[in-house]
Amino acid sequence: MIDITNALTSLKPEARWTLRGDEIEWLDDTQTQPTDSEITAEIQRLQAEYDSKQYARDRAKAYPSLTEQADMAYWDRKNGTTTLDDALDAIKAEFPKPE
Q1: Using one digit for the tens of pLDDT, what is the confidence trace for 14-58?
Q2: How confident is residue 99, by pLDDT bands cut at 50, 70 and 90?
Q3: In Å, what is the CA distance from 95 to each residue of 65, 84, 85?
Q4: How far is CA 47 from the centre of its chain?
Q5: Segment 36-45, tens digit of pLDDT
Q6: Are 64 and 72 in contact (CB under 8 A)?
Q7: Residue 34: how many CB atoms within 10 A of its CB?
Q8: Is the pLDDT score of 13 beyond 90?
Q9: Could you tell me if 2 and 39 are in contact, meaning their C-beta atoms sit under 8 angstroms apart?
Q10: Pair 83, 76: CB distance under 8 Å
Q11: How far is CA 37 from CA 1, 11, 30, 58, 84, in A?
């Protein structure tokens, strides 16, 4: 879940601040503190970016290990088969990349 900490780090990566509950204590004297609306907008932007990559997280869980993929590739070359490509294509079809 994206929160205030993520938003502040994204908006002001070098800033010094502390979060006490939901209250921001701004400790940086060289950068201005983002407004509540800027923080809310950044939380929404970061959450949308995270959500848009769910397919990639799902694929990563479903892919065979690299050792298994290497073994499939070896046997595909040896036998003239497409086992690895077929497995990867099936996963990509199950978890399509959004357009």
Answers
A1: 999 999 998 999 999 999 999 999 999 999 999 999 999 999 999
A2: confident
A3: 17, 17, 15
A4: 10
A5: 999 999 999 9
A6: yes
A7: 21
A8: yes
A9: no
A10: yes
A11: 18, 12, 21, 32, 48
Assigned token pair, 1: 């879940």
Q: Which residues pair with 26 in a beta bridge?
A: 17
Residue pair 41/25 in contact (Cβ under 8 Å)? The answer is no
Q: Where do runs of H (alpha helix) occur along the chain?
A: 4-11, 36-52, 54-62, 66-79, 83-94
Whole-number Å distance between alpha carbons of 39 and 76:
51
Q: Which two tokens stand for residue 64?
A: 């065979």
